[in-house]
Amino acid sequence: MLSGLIPRMHGREFRSVRRLLVVALLIGLGVLAPGVSAQQFDLLRVTCSDFPSQAAAQAAYREDPIGLKSLDRDNDGIACENNPGPYDYRRPGEPPAPQPPAPPAPPAPPAPKPEPEPHCTFYAETGHNLCGGFRDYWRQFGGLAVYGFPITDEFVDPDTGRVTQWFERARFEWHPGTWPERFDVQLGLLGNELAADRRGEGPFMPAHPIEGCIFFEPTGHNLCGGFRAYWEQFGGLAVYGMPISEEFREVNPDTGVEYTVQYFERQRFEWHPGEWPERYDVMLGRLGAELFIAE
Question: Is 0.90 topped by the overall pTM?
Answer without folding.
Answer: no
